[in-house]
Amino acid sequence: QVQLVESGGGLVQPGGSLRLSCAASGRIVGILPMGWYRQAPGKERELVAIITAYGSTSYADPVKGRFTIYRHYPNNTVHLQMNSLKPEETAAYYCHSRAYWGQGTQVTVSS
Q1: What is the pLDDT of residues 65-99, one digit of tens each?
Q2: 54: which residues sit within 8 A by CB, 6+ positions away?
Q3: Which of 53, 54, 76, 80 is the most exposed place for a label (fewest CB within 10 A)?
Q4: Which candidate, 1, 75, 73, 69, places its Cα nearest to that of 36?
């Protein structure tokens, strides 16, 4: 079993920044590929960004240039730096790795 625990969500004004963190623990072998997803009310969960075990990254088009996913070695901890946030990005943000999901952290972008 692998546990994923997110942190760092909150309320931010449009144009502001937040950094989300996801810490993995449990029966982990090696470096995990990890990703961030988000789900707004009434919408499907969507991919935001992923990082492979080797450090390669990929982003959804709407967040390119504003969000950065990175990790701290040797810990399986991944961060998502979110800049220039928009109100439409209000959602629950979830950490994912292999078959596991975190509980989510709420991000609210509002003035």
Answers
A1: 999 999 977 678 999 999 999 999 999 999 999 99
A2: 31
A3: 54
A4: 69
